[in-house]
Amino acid sequence: MWAIFTLILAFSSGTLSLDKLNMCMDAKHHKTSPGPEGLLYNQCAPWKNNACCTANTSEEAHSDNSYLYNFNWNHCGSMSPKCKKHFIQDTCFYECSPHLGPWIQEVDQSWRKERIVDVPLCMEDCHSWWEDCKDDFTCKSDWHTGWNWNSGFNHCPAGAKCRKWTDFYPTPKSMCEQIWSNSYLYTTHSKTSGRCMQLWFSGENPNRKVAEYYLNSALQMPSFTLTSILSLAAASLAMTMS
Ligand SMILES: *[C@@H]1O[C@H](CO)[C@@H](O)[C@H](O)[C@H]1NC(C)=O
Questions:
Q1: How far apart are CA 159 and CA 180, in angstroms?
Q2: Which of 31, 34, 116, 216: CA 20 to 30 A from 163?
Q3: Which protein residue's CA is at the shortest distance from atom 10 of ligand 1?
Q4: What's the whole-model pTM score?
Q5: Where would one find the signal peptide in this protein (predicted)?
Q6: Which one of 60, 63, 91 would you pick to mutate in the ligand 1 pocket, going by the greatest count of ligand atoms within 8 A of its CB?
């Protein structure tokens, strides 16, 4: 009896111990837990007080074909600098953010155990990204899969012609959601709303409060219910035995 009781307690406290508001996903370059990184480079510097990326990762995030993912932004001619800066920011956000907990899911991939799904992006960040890239070229709408990696870097697969950005992404929404296979969710929330995640910010990281909001409003419910049921079960078990 006591064994079961202990088991229930251990399980219910286990479900609570994972800090979804301050954690790093289990992926290719993330630290195991977030912490200060005084030397974060350039566009990644806003995360320096609390980051899942190292200084090395933050510097690599700024170079073409970096060892991080061997990803070639220039697969349809040179990507314009104004467009590329959004991909650098996207990389900083992905690698450095300690507040993605509510949107982290397990995946069965060789290069990572977890990914993000449907992170609600602020409208301004998605729109400015699309505006600055809409005159560039690409050959695919989902940049996660389907490339030709024969050279070690991604190139357009056979039959995929380079076309205008807007042929693949007619709207900001289509770009933000499709480019990383639904890692991001388009929203009409603005940066002041507290209801969307910001790729671009300065000063204190505004995304912790946003993660807290989503954790409390929707995603917390199932585990809260589970914890309540387990606590009740434990309590009644304890009473039966006393
Ligand atoms: C980061 O680390 C990798 C692997 O150790 C190394 O090859 C690379 O040169 C480093 N990059 C920087 C910018 O220090």
A1: 21
A2: 116
A3: 56
A4: 0.83
A5: 1-17
A6: 60
The DSSP line for the chain is -HHHHHHHHHHHHHHHHS-TTS---SSSS--SS-B--TT--GGGGGGTTSBSS-HHHHHHTTSTT-TTT---TTBTBPPPHHHHHHHHHHHHHHHH-S--GGGEEEEEETTEEEEE--EEE-HHHHHHHHHHHTTSEES-S-SSS--B-TTSS-BPPTT---EEHHHH-SSHHHHHHHTTTTSEEE----TTSSSSB-SS--SS-THHHHHHHHIIIIIHHHHHHHHHHHHHHHHHHHHHH-
pLDDT in tens, 36-79: 999 999 999 999 999 999 999 999 999 999 999 999 999 999 99
Which residues contact ligand 1 via a Cβ below 6 A?
A: 56, 59-60, 67
Distance 28 CA to ligand 1 centre (A): 14
